[in-house]
Amino acid sequence: MNETMTLKTLLGDYPVTEALKQGKVSSPLVRFEFADIKPPSQGFKRTVRNLEFDVSELAIMTYLVAKAHGAPLVLLPAVVMGRFQHPLIVYNAERGPLAPGDLAGRRVGVRSYSVTTGAWIRGILADDYGVDLDRIRWTTFEEPHVAEFRDPSNVERAPAGKDLTAMLLAGELDAAIVGAAPTDPHLKTLIPDPASAARAWQAKNKALQVNHLVVVKSSLSQSRPDVVREVYRLLLESRKASGLPKPGETDFNPYGVEANRRNLEVAIDCAFRQKLIPRRFTVDELFDDVTRALNA
């Protein structure tokens, strides 16, 4: 039991993971074999479908959907990527003005319907702008991470070879949910003053829009709880080494069950109301007896 265990791992390059990935924090108990997948989201299907990784970064909505379909994965309370999503729905301003209330009957593109940024954006549109999500024609470009998930009836797949940004610029889409702030000057944020809107959302919900956390195989947690606790300790040490959050800044990388309880409650509610999951999980259900005890 004292031998070093090698863990096949999918983990992106972030300030809070830098020390771990560069070996600046380490342990005699575990060794990480990092998969060369960039961005790490390209490996999420392999995480939930093939159970390829012992330890994996995973988007929260993908984890919730996977859990609903019985994937033997357990959550660690470590947010390696968090952000507010408000700037990430955009439109082509050259085609005239567009506001959230104008989306009924329009075509909106998103990489895949169940991705986390898409779910957060849809929740914002519905809750804060009164948008009826069922009246939007959603266009996707990839299949869901979780094979068992079925898109709603108002979702269609873009023709093979089509590009989301190119379709938006050509007028084939009216708006699009993107993964990062666009660089094309023609594309503008659909939500006016997204920074102020994000602050208002945070004050209203008392939460963060967490994106990617870390999961481990349930079998690993059951057979080697000491290893799982050590993985979390190393993640926590790596976060501390990053110096984040800086004084006065929002902590987008909260670690610990209690630090994330409200964030996860809001994420679960968002997923349930959009029918990504069949029932509201409790926060404690996302963890097991080992990971439920982990705090910062």
Oligomeric grouping of the chains:
single chain
Please tell me what the overall shape is.
Answer: globular
The neighbouring-strand order within the major sheet is: 8-7-6-9-5-10
CATH level-3 fold name of the largest domain: D-Maltodextrin-Binding Protein, domain 2
Structural class: alpha/beta
Roughly how much helix do the residues carry, as a percent range?
A: 25-40%
What order do the SSEs take from the amino end to the carboxyl end, as H and E?
EHEHEHEEEHEEHEEHEHHH
Helical segment count: 9
pLDDT averaged over residues: 97
**Count of DSSP strands:** 11
N→C terminal distance: 26 Å
The description of the largest β-sheet is: 6 strands, mixed
Q: What is the correct CATH architecture of the largest domain? A: 3-Layer(aba) Sandwich
Number of domains: 2
The top-level CATH class of the largest domain is Alpha Beta
Quick one: CATH superfamily of the largest domain? Answer: Periplasmic binding protein-like II
Low-confidence segments, given as residue ranges, are none
> Rg to the nearest angstrom?
19 Å
Strand content is 15-25%
Brief account:
With 296 residues, this protein is of the alpha/beta class. Helix content is 31%, strand content 19%.
List the helices and strands and how they pair.
Blueprint: E1 5-10, H1 18-21, E2 30-34, H2 44-49, E3 55-59, H3 60-68, E4 73-82, E5 89-92, E6 107-110, H4 116-129, E7 137-140, E8 155-157, H5 164-170, E9 175-177, E10 187-189, H6 194-205, E11 210-217, H7 218-223, H8 225-242, H9 257-273
Parallel strand pairs: 1-2, 1-3, 6-7, 6-9, 7-8
Antiparallel strand pairs: 3-11, 4-11, 5-9, 5-10
